[in-house]
Write a structure and sequence with these properties.
Layout (H helix, E strand, L loop, with lengths): L1 H20 L4 E6 L12 E5 L2 E10 L5 E8 L4 E4 L8 E2 L2 E2 L4 E2 L3 E20 L14 E7 L21 E8 L7 E2 L7 E8 L20 E11 L5 H22 L1
Helix pairs in contact: 1-2
Length: 257
Amino acid sequence: MASRNHKSFIFSLFCSAFMAVNASAVSIDLDLSNPTSSYGNSVYNYTAGDVNLSVSGFSYDRRGEIESDTVGNYGAGLGVEDGWSPEHAIDNGFNLSTFRFDYDMLLLSFDQAVSLDSITAGWRGTMLNLFQPSSRNSEASVLAYGGAGTPDNFVGSEWSDLLNDEWAGIGNYRIDNLNSPEAVNAGGMMSRYWLVGAYNPTLNLDNEAGTHFSAANDFWKLDSISVTVNPVPLPGSLLLFGTALVIFGSMRRKQAK
């Protein structure tokens, strides 16, 4: 009986240690609607919990290549301020002066790997010209960087080039309901770098099931996001786990004799 109780104790210790080491998923919400600002911000910085985030903006220039743009926030969320247009939303609008689409994207740069779990739109636009019908829905494309270290500078490239440079296409999503989180990244990919932008058909990403997507009518602002992080286990948890392994191994050796 004593032996059985001893084994039960060791098993309980092992399970407790394993659970302590793997007490991982911590969900964090980041409100991107504050602070508000005027035009011309190159980067927005946010902190929530133990996560630090920097947000910068990109879109297509007159040549149809990626350019760096400023980021604006006007109370309903973040948008990209296009270099050749006064628009300050995230959009894939058609520009009549260049006959090109914007394909705006925000680069979310975290100080640690996170799983981007949801995105929320705080504003949706309406018709701007004949080439951009009334925006009855809002659609987003999401990518994550799968390489080690920092991604290469993609200014001067096309968005589709990134899929050959260690960026992974996460998917296209409908974010019709304002101020309501839309789940993304069902596979739970972890990355320090994420691109979130208006629906971009040139990427050929998988569409959210049961939805229809169309280009050139998406104008929205990113109000908030939710991420999951996996914190490093506390030293005490690691010590407990190691102790349980040592005792368990000692018992196995005694049984072998």
